[in-house]
Write a structure and sequence with these properties.
Helix 1 packs across helix 2. The protein is about 25% helix and about 25% strand. It is globular, with a radius of gyration of 18 Å. It starts with 16 loop residues before the first strand and ends with a strand. The protein has helices at about 40-50, 60-75, 95, 125-130, 130-140, 165-170, 185-195, 240-250, 295-310, and strands at about 15-25, 55-60, 80-85, 100-105, 110, 145, 155, 160-165, 200-205, 220-225, 225-230, 255-260, 265-270, 270-275, 280-285, 285-290, 315-320, 335.
């Protein structure tokens, strides 16, 4: 039987969490020349999260765990809320290789073990790909294996049967091809059977600088069952202007309430465009963490999200260093539903 037939569905991110999953950073080439600040960013994120839910963190070995503990203590993290799990990883972007957890009406949570192949771009992904099976066993959870590639950052769900994604990421037949030949209808069947999705909203292209080739979590996010927030660019000369305008028009045709976030001034390091976006926020229990970039638009984004999440604390986390790894707060976290 499929997860759908067994009553499982993908909960919305704002539904109650049992924990947030992180992976202790170690792949220095993800942050060339700027690795030193990254553990401290993780420390600050963990400090915020450990006040509201468990933080479960994958570490390479005993030395990595000791390093994480040292940073967390200096950052005043509530260590009573932190649990360490030893499993080697290639990278630290848990959004894309951790299980996509689903839940049924009885409250049973299961691991969706989708394949991960390094965004169809990098060669070192096999350890990341083993994480869902490891966690299903450690957490004593039922495991579902759809057998196709899907990254958590490529989808966003309303918790009420809607999912939003991009054609650039999941339907490309020439660049970073995840599932050759599967197509729109095939993917929608998997979304229905394994995530309980009734309707998929397809946007076109993601933001400039995104090496995942169009992840939705830099672009458009559900903030409640009937509302989606999407980024827009006001500068007509900017690379993001037309693609984001096109996506906004598509969203306005869905019947959903649509709100907008600005984009920061383009962020570069050593000549490389980086995927800086306020849409890469993370929703935790009673808390929303928002990436900031020392940009005048930081306050606009924070104020907008504070209105949309009026029952949660909305806090900015400086991500000018983290984004050099081509991801920020949503990319480094994965929620485990309560």
């Amino acid at each position: 039987m499929t997860p759908l037939q067994l009553g499982f569905r993908l909960p919305a991110e704002w539904e109650p969490h049992a924990a947030t999953w992180l992976a202790w950073p170690h792949e220095r080439t993800d942050w060339p020349g700027k690795f030193a600040p990254i553990p401290w960013v993780y420390g600050e994120v963990a400090r915020r999260l450990a006040r509201v839910e468990k933080v479960r963190i994958l570490v390479e070995d005993q030395a990595a765990e000791q390093s994480a503990r040292r940073v967390f203590r200096k950052c005043a993290v509530n260590m009573d809320a932190v649990e360490f799990f030893r499993h080697r990883t290639n990278r630290s972007w848990t959004r894309d290789f951790c299980p996509v957890f689903v839940r049924n009406p009885k409250g049973e949570v299961a691991c969706g073990n989708w394949k991960f192949n390094g965004w169809a771009k990098y060669d070192n992904w096999r350890q990341d790909n083993q994480v869902p099976k490891f966690l299903a066993k450690r957490l004593k959870m039922r495991e579902f294996e759809p057998g196709i590639v899907l990254e958590g950052g490529s989808i966003d769900a309303s918790g009420a049967g809607l999912l939003v994604t991009t054609e650039e990421c999941l339907l490309s037949e020439s660049v970073q091809v995840r599932n050759p030949g599967l197509g729109r209808a095939g993917l929608e069947r998997y979304f229905a059977d394994y995530l309980g999705i009734e309707r998929t909203i397809w946007l076109k292209n993601g933001i400039a600088g995104d090496d995942t080739h169009g992840h939705i979590d830099d672009l458009a996010r559900f903030v409640d069952a009937d509302t989606v927030v999407t980024v827009v660019e006001q500068d007509r000369s900017e690379a993001n202007y037309e693609p984001l305008r096109e996506n906004l028009a598509l969203l306005k045709q869905t019947g959903l309430r649509v709100e907008t976030l600005p984009m920061p001034v383009p962020v570069y390091f050593d000549g490389q465009r980086l995927p800086a976006s306020y849409a890469n926020f993370y929703i935790a229990n009673g808390l929303v963490l928002v990436p900031t970039f020392n940009d005048p638009m930081d306050r606009v984004a924070l104020n907008t999200l504070a209105k949309l999440f009026s029952n949660r604390e909305v806090a900015g986390i400086y991500c000018g260093d983290l984004v050099l790894g081509l991801g920020t707060l949503h990319c480094m976290t994965m929620q485990q539903p309560a």
